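Section 5: illustrative case.
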């Protein structure tokens, strides 16, 4: 595989404050990489360096080209979906026509992508951007990004302003992006990156403190995924006792609104069948994912770096 993004001692300072502190990493063609970190960790600053919006120390290359302010050749290779799409005093059609021309993309290609995202162009093209929902705006930006056929797609908290339905819809479309596109995603939501990213870079205090898979991340931070199960109130006590007897279950929490179960992912389905075998009525269930605060707290407590950063 070929590295499409390479950082060598990448450093960014604002006055006396160091935002990025000597980053070294490579991202291979076709990889799906998620950046994790609390606010201020440096995720957006890294993207701004990649897009050539700010200067920096060290070296950053995209497909062998030097990134930085004025590097138009690099920007043409990167499509960007921001956290909060800027809203102009334009109709959707006017906005997309202008930026499609700037990217050298036909408006027909953008409209085709938009239609693939489930947006009826004839119904929305004349609407002012300010009248569109957050989900519709993000789809407009995503259609523009995909139509550009840039080899790198950068997404900065793309679902932050969306309602749950729009969030699920956008994530579904992102999972369908072809492997000819390298995807770099920043998100606070661990449950979102799981279906999208195969590699995780964790940033803390401007440094990479973990580089590995999501499974490796759970192991390094000693955090657990699990299940939440909804059973009738009069069966909760019995269900909890049955679950505690299952060899794959490590912890059971009952709070009156359901049962939280710490259990290996590979055994989750077996646990549900175990309850049904004992005549417990499972009314609903969902997977539980540790929060970003849980994960970052473990690094703050001194956990070591992941496999690639050990």
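Designed sequence:
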């Amino acid at each position: 595989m070929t590295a499409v993004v390479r950082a060598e001692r990448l450093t960014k300072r604002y006055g006396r404050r160091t935002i990025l502190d000597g980053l070294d990493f490579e991202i291979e063609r076709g990889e799906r990489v998620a950046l994790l970190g609390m606010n201020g960790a440096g995720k957006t600053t890294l993207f701004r360096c990649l897009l050539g919006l700010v200067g920096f120390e060290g070296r950053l290359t995209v497909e062998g080209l030097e990134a930085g302010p004025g590097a138009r050749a690099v920007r043409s290779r990167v499509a960007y979906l921001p956290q909060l799409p800027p809203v102009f005093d334009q109709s959707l059609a006017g906005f997309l026509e202008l930026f499609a021309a700037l990217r050298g993309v036909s408006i027909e290609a953008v409209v085709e992508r938009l239609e693939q995202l489930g947006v009826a162009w004839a119904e929305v093209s004349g609407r002012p951007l300010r009248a569109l929902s957050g989900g519709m705006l993000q789809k407009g930006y995503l259609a523009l990004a995909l139509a550009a056929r840039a080899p790198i797609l950068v997404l900065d908290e793309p679902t932050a302003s969306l309602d749950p339905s729009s969030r699920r819809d956008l994530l579904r479309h992102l999972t369908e992006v072809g492997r000819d596109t390298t995807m770099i995603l920043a998100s606070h939501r661990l449950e979102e990156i799981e279906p999208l990213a195969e590699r995780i870079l964790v940033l803390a205090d401007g440094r990479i403190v973990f580089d590995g898979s999501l499974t490796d991340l759970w192991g390094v931070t000693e955090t657990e995924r699990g299940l939440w199960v909804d059973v009738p109130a009069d069966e909760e006590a019995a269900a909890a006792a049955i679950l505690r007897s299952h060899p794959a279950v490590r912890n059971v929490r009952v709070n009156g609104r359901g049962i939280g179960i710490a259990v290996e992912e590979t055994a989750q389905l077996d646990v549900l069948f175990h309850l049904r075998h004992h005549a417990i009525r499972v009314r609903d269930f969902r997977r539980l994912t540790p929060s970003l605060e849980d994960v970052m707290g473990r690094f703050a407590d001194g956990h070591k770096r992941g496999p690639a950063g050990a």
